[in-house]
Design goal:
The protein is α/β, with parallel strands linked by helices. It has helices spanning 44-56, 77-84, 102-108, 112-122, 155-171, 185-195, 214-223, 243-252, 283-295, 297-311; strands at residues 7-10, 13-15, 23-27, 61-64, 87-89, 91-93, 143-147, 175-178, 203-206, 226-229, 259-261, 313-314. The strands form 3 sheets. The protein has a 6-stranded parallel beta sheet. α4 (112-122) crosses α5 (155-171). 50% of the residues are buried.
């Protein structure tokens, strides 16, 4: 029997990787956390306006890294994708414990790997989350999102990593990792890849721009992981000036094929269409132009199109 061809799992179904287009590799349309009181992303109309603004400047796809229990609104994503023409990759997974009320976390932890697999294969709704409307096909997640802690992996992270690895082996899904402050990248790879046998090419390390350690970046890239530089957002603007040097170092080290670019818009104020920006449109507009000036058109093609087409593709086993 022939192995299945790699595909990107979007909320409207699996697509060939080449159809993904220009990709925002890490962002949020919906997000609700007790650590961000009053800054919830929960407005459907605002999410649609942001996607339309993104599409108007050439955006083709967004990976929404909002995991279980944080208001990811899986039920709304298919309509938003169909209305705007933007491919959407949804996430299952679990964030740091601090992002959940204790009662909600206790409800999510039992059978965690099975919960992840159900999300990836059948669109099961998480605790307190809406599922698809009556009669609608199931909405499937296309990635697993997990999180480390600052410079270390605490017991919660290790428990969630184990469940994520089990779900990866059952389905083939890529795993995106929130690195707190951009730290612990190599510890994450040791845990997921060395400890649980996840192929490095199935791991996306997020927030590396927040720790501009080019030696660590190079080692992670040479190990085979994907590196997401996902800071252009009001919450993280202090890292913007470091981005060109980080990207240049990776290009010069021969690691350009491991780089992804994302926006990580986490507050309503950071949206372009309904807030003060820069939001999702900044990636295909201003930021892309700056990268091309510094590193050339080939780097832009890799960072925005070819690399995410590989990073989010899987030979799905379920």
């Amino acid at each position: 029997m022939n192995a299945p061809r790699p595909a990107v799992r979007t909320v409207l179904g699996d697509i060939a990787p080449g159809r993904l287009g220009l990709c925002d590799a890490h962002d949020h349309l919906f997000l609700r956390s007790p650590l961000l009181p009053g800054q919830e992303l929960d407005d459907e109309a605002a999410a649609e306006a942001e996607l339309r603004a993104f599409a108007a400047v050439g955006g083709g796809a967004v990976a929404q890294w909002t995991p279980l229990g944080l208001g990811r609104r899986m039920d709304l994503l298919p309509r938003l994708s169909a209305a705007t023409g933007v491919h959407l990759i949804a996430a299952t997974g679990l964030h740091q414990a601090a992002h959940y009320a204790p009662g909600r976390l206790r409800r999510l932890l039992p059978g965690l790997a099975e919960r992840f697999v159900a999300d990836l294969t059948g669109g099961a709704a998480g605790a307190g989350e809406a599922g698809p409307a009556g009669g609608a096909p199931p909405v499937r997640a296309g990635m697993i999102k997990v999180a480390g802690s600052f410079h270390v992996l605490d017991a919660h992270a290790r428990f969630v990593f184990s469940a994520a690895a089990e779900a990866h082996h059952a389905t083939g899904a890529p795993i995106g990792v929130h690195l707190e402050g951009g730290t612990a990248a190599l510890a994450v790879l040791d845990a997921l890849c060395g400890g649980h046998g996840v192929p490095p090419g199935s791991v996306i390390l997020g927030h590396l721009n927040r720790a501009p350690d080019s030696a660590t970046h190079r080692r992670a890239a040479e190990a085979g992981a994907y590196l997401a530089f996902d800071g252009p957002s009001r919450a993280h603007h202090a890292t913007d000036w470091r981005l060109p040097e980080c990207l240049r170092a990776l290009v010069e080290a021969g690691c350009a094929e491991r780089v992804l670019i994302g926006g990580d818009t986490t507050t309503a104020a950071a949206r372009a269409a309904t807030g003060g920006g820069p939001g999702m449109p900044h990636l295909p507009a201003g930021l892309r132009e700056g990268i091309e000036r510094e590193l050339g058109a080939e780097a832009v093609e890799l960072f925005y199109r070819r690399n995410p087409a590989r990073a989010f593709a899987a030979s799905w086993r379920a």
